[in-house]
Amino acid sequence: MGRSRRLAGLLLVAVALLAPGALRPAPARADITCYDFQVPAEARAVYEVLGGDPYALDEGWPPRIEATAGDGVPCDQLPELDERPAGDEPLWDPGSGLDTLPAETTSARIAEIDGATEIRVAGPEGSDDATVLLVGVATPEREPAVDYGDRPLAEQCFADEATERLRTMLPRGRTVYLETDANAETGYEEWHRHVWFKGKDDGRYYLVSDILVAEGYGVVATTRLGTARADAAQDPPADTRYRDHLRAAQGRAIAEGAGLWGSCGDQ
């Protein structure tokens, strides 16, 4: 079943590409699934803070157990744990930086901020800018898409604040460092990267998604093809490099009521 759905998804992409006026596929989106949570409290917090269930967290869980769908309880069968699983500690203090960059990064220069998780970096002289999507984080959107069960959604709480925070971190012309992650690649021409920048005051290197999650401007998410979202239930997405770190950062943000966690409940 999973294989046939994946094939159907690929066929839909192919048809879209052959449609008149189709220049390139739409970028893959950050997609929140029940696999992104380790304890029920996190799933409930995200469900309540985003409103409207745009990511279909209340459509029955585990996969194909739909008796609980629509009961107002997201990701019903996540284990009720008193505390996080052993070893789920952040790699560094969330929201703080590192003394050195990861081993393999490529420098680039910010050309524009197109949203709270989408940036454009300048290409070599004479070439087009490249679109970069942040790995591991989804943020509230000003113009939410309707590709999650065709649910029309209003602008989400904290969308403006999240975009402004990214623009403050990454003003036009700032040098950033792009880190690849094999588990985040989707086949689309947009780049999915971990994005780092160097602090002006302390000279430390900061992971953009870590700051967004730690300060409550974003939610831990998986990068998946939009047309394959239903497959996430039967084909869990691979872990990206900093996923557990971001989960730990998110747990702290929820506990502290940081950002959207303290401002957007029931909105």
TrEMBL record:
Keywords noted in UniProt: Signal
Entry-linked Gene3D superfamilies: 2.40.50.90
Signal peptide positions on this chain: 1-30
Organism: uncultured Thermomicrobiales bacterium
Keyword Cell cycle: no
Signal recorded as keyword: yes
InterPro entries: SNase_OB-fold_sf (IPR035437), Staphylococal_nuclease_OB-fold (IPR016071)
SUPFAM superfamilies linked: Staphylococcal nuclease
Organism classification: Bacteria, Pseudomonadati, Thermomicrobiota, Thermomicrobia, Thermomicrobiales
Name the UniProt record assigns to this protein: TNase-like domain-containing protein
Residue span, TNase-like domain: 104-263
